Amino acid sequence: EPEVTQTPSHQVTQMGQEVILRCVPISNHLYFYWYRQILGQKVEFLVSFYNNEISEKSEIFDDQFSVERPDGSNFTLKIRSTKLEDSAMYFCASSGSRTVWGLNQPQHFGDGTRLSIL
Amino acid sequence: GIQVEQSPPDLILQEGANSTLRCNFSDSVNNLQWFHQNPWGQLINLFYIPSGTKQNGRLSATTVATERYSLLYISSSQTTDSGVYFCAVEKETSGSRLTFGEGTQLTVNP
């Protein structure tokens, strides 16, 4: 079964540094997402991306964050100047277009990148 | 935004016991998914179930969309079932956010 892959699995960065998290969504999917989970808390939505532009973003997704689909396969999340509170697990997800019956497709999640800010 | 409430927040079982986890949501949805987060932090997709009933081995799920709730049943629980179970809903059409509940922390003791 095709899957979403994320690299690296763990990233340790000094506060103030830039970090790029990488994702390869499932190849025929059209919608891409980033979520984060602070340790011990629930999973929170950051941003969704469709047709090469952001379609929705949460209040967490401020000017320090950006997303890009640099080629036909990768989807990246950049944090420009990391803060201690950016330490979290970051999940990438992707989904296909609606079914012929008009139903949403499920979102498929990668294994996550654990980001630790020192 | 849409609210998602899961109950119970914590559940401790002996191996072999059955359990029911509940997810209530505050508005109509186009997607509902159940996930199991294992000790390594991976989110394992259990069910995509915006309505109806599905079964997969010892697990089954039912969503009653008109009454805005979903149930996850775990039968003959095993220690490997331990972890956090999340319900997540998508209100709008494709490409919109999944809103997660707070989760149910399940511990299965041998």
Please describe what this structure looks like.
The complex is a heterodimer of chains A (118) and B (110). Chain A is built from no helices and eleven strands. Chain A is an all-beta fold and 118 residues long. In chain A, strands 2, 4, 5, 6, 9, 10 and 11 form a seven-stranded mixed β-sheet that branches. In chain A, β7 and β8 (75-79) form a beta hairpin. The model of chain A has no long low-confidence stretch (mean pLDDT 93). With 110 residues, chain B is mainly β. In chain B, 0% of the residues lie in helices and 56% in strands. Chain B has strands at 4-7, 10-14, 19-25, 31-37, 43-48, 52-56, 59-64, 69-74, 83-90, 99-100, 104-109. Chain B is globular, with a radius of gyration of 13 Å.
Keywords:
heterodimer, A: 118 residues, mainly beta, seven-stranded mixed β-sheet, 11 strands, B: 110 residues, five-stranded antiparallel β-sheet
Proportion of beta-strand residues of chain B:
over 45%
| Largest sheet geometry of chain B | 6 strands, mixed
Largest sheet of chain A: 7 strands, mixed
**What spatial form of chain B do the alpha-carbon principal axes imply?**
globular
* Structural class computed from helices and strand pairing of chain A: mainly beta
Strands of chain A, total number: 11
Question: Shape of chain A from CA axes?
Answer: globular
Rounded mean pLDDT of chain A is 93
Tally of extended strands of chain B? 11
Q: Helical segment tally of chain B?
A: 0
Q: Stretches of chain A where pLDDT falls below 50 for ≥5 residues?
A: none
Which series of helices and strands of chain B comes N to C?
EEEEEEEEEEE
Describe the secondary-structure layout:
The complex is a heterodimer of chains A (118) and B (110).
Chain A: E1 5-7, E2 10-13, E3 19-24, E4 31-37, E5 44-50, E6 53-57, E7 65-68, E8 75-79, E9 88-95, E10 108-109, E11 113-117
Chain B: E1 4-7, E2 10-14, E3 19-25, E4 31-37, E5 43-48, E6 52-56, E7 59-64, E8 69-74, E9 83-90, E10 99-100, E11 104-109
Parallel strand pairs in B: 2-11
Antiparallel strand pairs in B: 1-3, 3-8, 4-5, 4-9, 6-7, 7-8, 9-10, 9-11
